[in-house]
Amino acid sequence: MGKTFAVIGDPIDHSLSPHIHSAAFRELGLEHSYIGYRIPKDELAEGIEGLKKIQISGFNITIPHKIEMMKYVDKIDESCSLIGAVNTVANNNGVLKGYNTDMDGFLEPFKKKNLKIENCRILLLGAGGAARAIVAGIAKEKAKSITIANRTLEKAKELSEFATKIQLESNFIQINEVKNSAKNYDIIINATSIGLKNESSPITFEGIRENTIVYDIVYKPMNTDFLKKAKEHKAIIIYGYEMLLGQAIRAFEIWHDMKAPYNAMKKALLGGF
Length: 273
Ligand SMILES: NC(=O)c1ccc[n+]([C@@H]2O[C@H](COP(=O)([O-])OP(=O)(O)OC[C@H]3O[C@@H](n4cnc5c(N)ncnc54)[C@H](OP(=O)(O)O)[C@@H]3O)[C@@H](O)[C@H]2O)c1
Known about the structure:
This protein has nine helices and twelve strands. The chain is an alpha/beta fold. The protein folds into two domains: 4-100 and 243-271, Leucine Dehydrogenase, chain A, domain 1 (Rossmann fold), CATH 3.40.50; 104-238, Rossmann fold (3-Layer(aba) Sandwich), CATH 3.40.50. The strands form two sheets. The chain has a six-stranded mixed β-sheet with strand order 2-1-3-5-6-4. It has a six-stranded parallel β-sheet with strand order 9-8-7-10-11-12, sandwiched between helices. Helix 1 packs antiparallel against helix 9 (262-271), helix 4 (102-112) crosses helix 5 and helix 4 (102-112) crosses helix 8 (240-256). The protein is globular and about 55 Å long. Residues 102, 105, 126-131, 150-152, 155, 175, 191-194, 196, 217-219, 240, 243-244, 247 line the site of NADP nicotinamide-adenine-dinucleotide phosphate.
């Protein structure tokens, strides 16, 4: 029998997840469905009750519920407890288990392209929820060090303390202080929301080496000014959609316990742009 899956959040109509998962079902001949379900910020408890009533098999969680959702899961995967936020839930006969696939999603493009994080010096812009999942991933892959640059210095400090706690050498600065220091890093990541509204890159790439990896997790627009400027300096580019695809693939594998159809999901995602 076909199962039902969903993505919850507010706003939700822009979400590409229904396209990606529906394409996977079509590709594999599965009669499941995946819907976008808007749940406003203070209606999460009622929303979850509703999903349980319809015996939802699994759901993704996006802004603004990722942290709040921790309260409503019965079990949590290690990825979830480490990051302190849930973005994927599996429902096993009314028992909700929470996962966080943002970390694996972030790492997926490195694996796919055979790019190493080990021993690299990292510059991370941003200190929000996604940045925390990224720090966890970078620590797992044993980077040499990380510099966290954020608008609100206090948040950069907190994230830097988290990095230290999970054995990743770190320091923090105000984002305006990055100035011309990009050349000191092997991997540069934008995990702020700068770019979503077509804003200019918050940093310059003067003097970076040709094979510096520059990764923007903002996925709409696909070609942010941050990535355009990095391309001018011949950086290796990783697009935000690659992380989005990576986390969807991991969620698919948690729910269905089978290999996800990567190409069909990628095609559906790119068709959404
Ligand atoms: N590709 C993917 O799969 C994927 C996954 C998750 C998230 N994302 C994207 O990543 C971005 C961040 O998500 P999140 O969940 O981490 O959000 P969040 O927790 O709200 O964090 C937002 C971050 O952006 C910074 N920021 C926002 N506006 C800024 C501005 N005008 N100038 C400087 N810094 C600014 C914030 O700095 P302050 O601390 O100073 O406020 C904070 O560091 C979003 O655009 C989201 O769409 C992509």
